[in-house]
TrEMBL record:
Family matches, as InterPro entries: CCT (IPR041723), Cyt_trans-like (IPR004821), Ect1/PCYT2 (IPR044608), Rossmann-like_a/b/a_fold (IPR014729)
The protein, known as: ethanolamine-phosphate cytidylyltransferase
Residue ranges of the region described as Disordered: 368-391
Keyword list, A-Z: Lipid biosynthesis, Lipid metabolism, Nucleotidyltransferase, Phospholipid biosynthesis, Phospholipid metabolism, Transferase
Organism listed in the record: Lymnaea stagnalis
Domain (Cytidyltransferase-like): residue spans on this chain: 30-153, 228-322
Record family assignment: Belongs to the cytidylyltransferase family.
Top enzyme class: transferase
GO BP, sorted A to Z: phosphatidylethanolamine biosynthetic process
GO molecular function: ethanolamine-phosphate cytidylyltransferase activity
One term under GO cellular component: cytoplasm
Skewed-composition ranges (Basic and acidic residues): 368-383
Length: 391
């Protein structure tokens, strides 16, 4: 009898512990447009996940984004897929309301909302988080300086102006391609440079940021290792679909990121839009990627394949430009019978994204101008309020 009672007490204790553990799960809500998802978005999501156990991310519909900000570059379906591909996201909520309400948090069982320390307002200038702030269910994370969707749109609007100008008077074989790529004059993007949140500023990567984004795991014995390489400029859903397909061919996906001069050589004088370190972080944030090689060689060399014990090398369906010496960059994996062309069934390219911007240039320029003006007014109001308080 005593034994039975002891067993019952033990079962009750385990049950209580289980219930307590379940009760203590902290569910975090984040939301946004997530247009042209970049490493700044991913870093905000990474920080949001650190506030709790489960991260739910609400993504606004095209209609909501257009109403409050202007036309999005990506469709809502593309934006849903991009956010799902961020490795810190546990669940995506489609067609999330633009103004975050307590009802939304309650509906999805979230304890609070997290957002970056920039300002987000409706078309009428109302803080989209005023309701959760008033209820003390709002927390902030740090915005990633040096990148924003507005900034990237500005860079693409400059694509018709040569920002990677080749100087044909320089001997490429003598000084290398890097000498032939001039720094993009992004400060000429106009008034956006005055915004403290979305203005153009130089992104400076650090080892700490790379560590935060990296998984930090190594392949296990017996893992099938897949290698792909490319520019991965303006990381988009075409890249996501390709990486998902490549990852399905093995157990550990390594992605080589080409240097800016290499990308400039095979993509043309206006590329890359994002520099190598920006592109590295964008790829590292993808849930299908296990490891990244920063500054990978254009040709897949025997040393690279042996060092990483590569079993399969993949390339998409896009044309492959010969290396600078005219050689096939995939000659070695082909020689080893380890090369595969992967068809992701998604033909979206970085060039197509830029063409969307150029096609609607005036709309996006106006969108950026309005956003800059709204942020400028908010900043002036904040300064005035601060002066009154200190005065």
């Amino acid at each position: 009898m005593a034994t039975k009672r002891t067993e019952d007490l033990a079962a009750e204790t385990v049950g209580d512990m289980s219930a307590e553990k379940k009760k203590k799960e902290v569910r975090v809500w984040m939301d946004g447009c997530f247009d042209m998802v970049h490493f700044g978005h991913a870093n905000a999501v990474r920080q949001g996940k650190e506030f709790g156990d489960k991260l739910l991310v609400g993504v606004h519909s095209d209609a909501e984004v257009t109403k409050h900000k202007g036309p999005p570059v990506y469709t809502e379906e593309e934006r849903y897929k991009m956010v799902r591909a961020i490795k810190w996201v546990d669940e995506v909520i489609e067609d999330a309301p633009y103004v975050t309400t307590l009802e939304t948090l309650e509906k999805y069982g979230c304890d609070f909302c997290v957002h970056g320390d920039d300002i987000t307002t409706t078309a009428d200038g109302v803080d989209t988080y005023h309701l959760v702030k008033a209820a003390n269910k709002y927390k902030e994370c740090k915005r990633t300086a040096g990148v924003s969707t507005t900034d990237l749109v500005g860079r693409m609007l400059l694509v018709t102006k040569t920002h990677h100008q080749r100087d044909d008077s320089i001997d490429e074989h003598h000084v290398g391609a890097i000498s032939k790529v001039r720094t993009p004059h992004l400060h000429s993007a106009g008034p956006s440079s005055h915004s403290p949140w979305t203005g153009v500023s130089q992104f400076l990567t650090t080892t700490q940021k790379i560590i935060q984004f990296a998984e930090g795991r190594e392949p296990k014995p017996g893992d099938k290792i897949v290698y792909v390489a490319g520019a991965f400029d303006l990381f988009h859903v075409g890249h996501v679909d390709f990486l998902e397909k490549a990852a399905s061919l093995g157990d550990f996906l390594i992605v080589g990121i080409h240097t800016d001069p290499i990308v400039n050589r095979y993509k043309g004088s206006n590329y890359p839009i994002m520099n190598m370190h920006e592109r590295t972080l964008s790829v590292l944030a993808c849930r299908y990627v296990s490891e990244v090689v920063i500054g990978a060689p254009y040709s897949v060399t025997p040393d690279l394949m042996d060092h990483f014990k590569v079993d399969v090398v993949c390339h998409g369906m896009t044309p492959v430009m010969p290396d600078i010496d005219g050689a096939d960059p995939y000659a070695e994996p082909k020689r080893r019978d380890k090369f595969i062309n992967v068809d992701s069934k998604n033909n979206l390219t970085t060039q197509m994204i830029i063409e969307r911007i150029i096609k609607h240039r005036l709309e996006y320029e106006e969108r950026n101008r309005k956003k800059e003006e709204k942020e400028r007014k908010i900043l002036e109001h904040m300064k005035t309020t601060a002066q009154i308080k200190t005065g």
